[in-house]
Amino acid sequence: MRVIIVDDEAPARDELQFLLREVPGVEVVDVARNGQEALRKITELKPEVVFLDIQMPDMSGLMVARELSLRLEPEKMPVIVFATAFDQHALEAFEVNAIDYILKPFSEERLLAAIERVKRLVSDPDSQQLSRILALLEKPKKTKLPVEENERIILLDPDQIVYCSISDRNVIIKTKDSEYTTGSNLGELEHKLGFLRTHKSYLVNPDMVREVIPWFNGTYNLVMQDSKASNVPVSRTFIKEVRKKLNF
User: I want to staple 7 with a disulfide (CB 3.0 to 4.6 A). Which of 12, 15, 22, 212 is the partner?
Assistant: First the structure.
């Protein structure tokens, strides 16, 4: 069983690679450090299984999995095992027969259980239901988002948020009339909020997009519904996902 490991953190990659190499019948053919590298290597090497980190800075594991499902024929789609630091209780709804997940730090016993599940899926590809698990993962339960303002903590309803961006190494949360900072990175916000990644430095609430403006080299700008009608760029990396989500 040929495996690729995708994780932006070297210690996690090394630990998982060490554990998997101890499992008979498993061959780790390569590792990837980010989403773009993962897409290239998975497409080229055609592994049967991908251990995929959920939180990565350039593209989340969810985005990588969605992109793979668009690029690859169903019979060439690898089995996806998500690796995550999220608490197990938050992931109970995701433990379906289609794919599996393992929690960080990795447990050898849990990893072996995941491998056994993967073997069953590889032997019966028709049982894979990636769209089902992605649908669940894309719709996290709405919770208030803590943000900072003048040394106060404010709890924002996600529906108030227009977009999130990176500025001077800070993550900024923009509402219609205000902006705040948060300790979360964009990858974490993408999972928590279920928003749309348009650029390595931008995450938007798709319900807050007012207008789409064609830009240079096949890219776009999104005009948002805040008081300044802010323009948010769409880079080439995310065009396909943005067009699909906004239906244009």
Answer: 12
Tell me if domain 2-138 and domain 145-246 are identical in fold: no
Q: What CATH class does 145-246 carry?
A: mainly beta
Overall CATH class of domain 2-138 = alpha beta
- Non-local (6+) Cβ contacts of 77 within 8 A are 68, 69, 128, 130
**Is the CB of residue 222 less than 8 Å from the CB of residue 199?**
no
How long is the chain? 248
- Give the CA angle between residues 191, 89, 130 to the nearest 5°: 55
134-160 pLDDT, tens digit each = 554 554 556 788 898 888 899 999 999
Element spanning 110, H or E? helix 108-123
Angle at 190 between CA 204 and CA 74, to 5 degrees: 105
Domain edges within the chain: 2-138, 145-246
Residue that wins the pLDDT comparison between 112 and 204 = 204
For residue 142, the one-letter residue type is: K
CA distances from 65 to 31, 145, 187 (A): 16, 26, 15
The tokens for 149 are 């303002």
Burial 178-210 (b: 16+ CB within 10 A, else e): ebbebebebbbbbbebbbbbbbbbbbbbeebbe
Calculate the CA dihedral of residues 9, 14, 15, 17 and round it to 10 degrees: 120
Query: CA–CA separation, 101 vs 41, rounded Å?
Result: 21
Q: How far apart are CA 159 and CA 193, in angstroms?
A: 9
Residue 122: phi and psi, rounded to 5, are: -65, -40
